[in-house]
UniProtKB/TrEMBL annotation:
Keyword Hydrolase assigned: yes
Chain ranges of the PPM-type phosphatase domain: 47-258
The name this protein goes by in its record: Serine phosphatase RsbU, regulator of sigma subunit
Native organism: Pseudomonas deceptionensis
Keywords per UniProt: Hydrolase
């Protein structure tokens, strides 16, 4: 009887210890989630063209979902899956979220973001931990989507009545050193209204009562049977529930529809300075030559310089969009000599960007020159930007005679610049373009 009494006391002590330890762990998770929510705000996940399914504590299952607008109105979206669970996954997710939001707001492209994310995770994560991820940029203005998939299940692009699988072509983040990391992306046409679905391996690895996995074939049957895109995630969730008889809480899915941004012109960055000091009379000129063009994106740096002029900040998104198009045209059609007419279909898109990568790697000469002039005018001021390239130029008169057609897949850059900046004009030889922006002093 005495031994049974001691055993009962031991069991009660262990029960109380386990309960206290469980409360401690739950409190740790609540604190970690509160800190993470401050670091990784929700971004634009609440946008009407984004639908997603994620458990409240998916962060502690290793899943991470982030979305944010670029200054030009494009959408960056990241779906990631860390190895492991609990606090280690949350700790790895926080620096990833910080890089994602800060670099997106400054206008960096996917390549620069991927290099920074991989380098940071490689530096801080232990050797047995890494991050599978799909990072994409949906641009309704340019009618395309740019995708990088490292170790994640296939995503699916539904465009023009056809479904394209976005397969993994890279190793996960945090595995390779910087010099071996491959940041090359895949670019596909995506018109307004087209749908794109991303998911984590929790969907495919859902196990039924007979120990069979849900798998790709069952998922594709759900995709084939879907008639209402806005109900796709709910139909997949129901298929998982029917397959195993109960809902799982470690499944993450996100669906995004391409649509034109309605907020272009609203600054994407919040500035903390007083606005009392502003450079109002200055000019600068930058010439970026072949070795720099191969691996450096100058636009965030030039834009940051321009945003020091407080009167321009309200037009920051438009300036960034116009400068991005002018730089892309100067690099791709001027320096690299690419023909925009290639981008008329899916195969043409793939061939165009394959040629772009090949010509950029082998580039030996050429330049893109960006000249900026800011001058006071009355109570406000004026900004003049001139972008020049070393290419062969183009027939300006013929291009200007075309209507402002933004619905075609190719040759949209000049039309977009003319729409956003009516003061834009091109030199007769087609090798340089000049745009002007003005502002009035705030009352």
């Amino acid at each position: 009887m005495e031994r049974l009494q001691r055993l009962q006391q031991t069991v009660l002590q262990q029960r109380d210890l386990i309960a206290r330890h469980n409360d401690y762990l739950l409190n740790e998770q609540r604190v970690a989630k509160a800190v993470f929510d401050r670091v990784a705000h929700s971004g634009c996940l609440s946008a009407p063209n984004i639908r997603y399914l994620q458990s409240p504590y998916a962060l502690f299952n290793g899943d991470l979902l982030l979305a944010a607008y670029t200054p030009t109105g494009d959408t960056h979206l990241l779906l990631a899956d860390f190895t492991g669970h609990g606090l280690p996954a949350a700790i790895g997710a926080m620096p990833l979220a910080e890089v994602f939001y800060s670099m997106t707001a400054k206008g960096y492209g996917l390549a620069e973001m991927l290099r920074e994310m991989n380098a940071k995770l490689k530096r801080i994560l232990p050797v047995d931990m890494f991050c599978c991820a799909t990072l994409l940029c949906v641009s309704a203005q340019r009618r395309c989507v740019e995708v990088w998939n490292g170790g994640m299940p296939d995503g699916y692009l539904q465009a023009g009545g056809q479904r394209t699988a976005l397969t993994s072509q890279h190793l996960p983040l945090g595995v390779l050193r910087a010099e071996k990391f491959d940041h090359c992306t895949r670019v596909l046409p995506m018109l307004p209204g087209d749908q794109l679905l991303l998911l984590t391996d929790g969907v495919l690895d859902t196990c039924g009562p007979d120990e069979q996995l849900f798998g790709v074939e069952r998922l594709e049957r759900v995709l084939d049977a879907n008639c209402q895109p806005q109900q796709l995630i709910a139909e997949i969730e129901q298929a998982l529930r029917d397959f195993q008889g109960q809902a799982r809480d470690d499944v993450s899915m996100v669906q995004i529809t391409s649509q034109l941004p309605a907020f272009l012109g609203v600054p994407a960055v919040t500035y903390s300075d007083s606005g009392q000091c502003s450079p109002l009379d200055w000019s600068a000129s930058f010439e970026f030559r072949a070795p720099t063009l191969q691996q450096f994106n100058p636009l965030p740096y030039v834009l940051q310089l321009l945003m020091e002029v407080h009167g321009l900040r309200a037009q920051g998104a438009v300036i960034h969009a116009v400068l991005s198009e002018l730089y892309a045209n100067a690099l791709e059609h001027g320096v690299l000599g690419l023909d925009s007419r290639l981008k008329r279909d899916v195969e043409g898109f793939a061939h165009y960007y394959q040629q772009r990568n090949e010509r950029l790697v082998s580039l030996q000469s050429g330049f893109v020159r960006i000249s900026v002039q800011v001058e006071p005018v009355g109570a406000g001021g004026r900004l003049v930007i001139r972008v020049e390239d070393s290419g062969q130029g183009f027939d300006v008169a013929r291009l200007m005679a075309r209507p402002l057609d933004l619905d075609r897949l190719s040759g949209r850059g000049v039309s977009l610049v003319r729409q956003l900046c009516p003061a834009a004009h091109w030199a007769p030889d087609g090798r340089s373009a000049t745009v002007e922006f003005s502002w009035e002093a705030l009352a």
